[in-house]
Amino acid sequence: MSGFPIPVSVLTGFLGAGKTTLLNRLLKDPALADTAVIINEFGEVAIDHLLVEQASDGIIQLSDGCLCCTVRGELVDTLADLVDRLQTGRIARLARVVIETTGLADPAPVLQSIMAHPALVQAFRLDGVITLVDAANGKATLDAHVEAVKQVAVADRIVLSKADLVTDASELETLRSRLRQINPGADLLDVADTKTGVAALFDCGLYNPATKSADVRRWLGEAHDHDHHDGHDHEHDHGHDQRVRSYSLVHDGPVPFSAIEMFLHLLRSAHGEHLLRMKGVIELSEDPSRPLVIHGVQKILHPPVQLPSWPDGQRGTRLVLITLDMPEDYVRRLFAAFTNRPSIDTPDRAALENNPLAIAGR
To answer: What is the number of domains present in the chain?
Structure first.
């Protein structure tokens, strides 16, 4: 039986971006053995040359041992059914889940399903979001559909498809630049590159399976120029793009748990619908030797966890926010108000350990 939590990858992208083509290629890789693929409708997706037999309840057994399931009702029900099949022995092993969204889908509800359900959060962990962008139609799609911009904004990996159909190299570079502006923290890959395989697309989460340890810098996207991106004053400015902002909040030194708790509570209460994604590592005053890791989508906050120690030696508080129509000045002022106020009453360490992460339920 597979160990928990099981990594979940979300594959998204606008209509015609090539999600199914990429999925077919990935499923032929032995590295994705024991993977369950959840899709919305079999009528919309053609799994090439892999179908062997159709089992009951929307489960299709693929020739390499993968499972393919339709979303029957809520995604939560489908994920819960996979866990039940695993625990009762109807599935021998489950190493990973890949969820392919529809082309018009907002990825946020999918991410929230994984983060918010009390049972599923024990069984699954969000590995990352992979967003495909059609290079031939990407500009027009981003201009016309804010959903496409949101799909790019929340991605951990952005994959450019159909670049060979673009004859003007400057147009292709303009699109690449635009994607980097929308989401400077994501890796930007080309689907035609032989290196764009399982190793490059998966394992986006906090833990690096190669080192068996947390890789905070990589997870936060700090290998990229992330320090400040305000969506304005760029050579190639576009209407929907201006609504998306990606920026970091940094505070040197420890922060009281109650200050972070109240900051997150007020932020999500006032502007939660506009918070596309948030990742953070926090140095707590109550226990500075163990960083607190937070991960949120809109108003939903994954139950925070404390790492055993600082993996990269760089302490302090670092939050990365990707927002839509959220006033950045408000966020920065709110963050400063709580991180620069030592007079806030804070619980002692025992109280923190007895009720460690109450902010998850707020």
So the answer is: 2
Residue whose C-alpha is closest to residue 76's, from 121, 36, 28, 33: 121
> What's the CA gap between 275 and 257, in Å, rounded?
21
H helix runs in the chain, sequence order: 19-27, 75-87, 107-116, 120-123, 138-144, 146-153, 169-182, 198-201, 216-219, 239-242, 257-271, 328-339, 349-354
pTM of the model: 0.81
- Residues 316 and 237 grouped into a single domain: yes
Residues 136-189: pLDDT tens digits? 999 999 999 998 999 999 999 999 999 999 999 999 999 999 999 999 989 999
Single residue among 139, 171, 205 that ends a domain in this structure: 205
Regions in the chain scoring below 50 on pLDDT: 1-2, 42-65, 72, 225-236, 342-362
Residues 309, 169 share a domain: no
Q: Which residues make beta-bridge pairs with 126?
A: 8
Clarify whether residues 51 and 186 are in a common domain.
Answer: yes
What tens digit of pLDDT does each residue of 105-130 get? 778 888 888 888 888 888 998 899 99
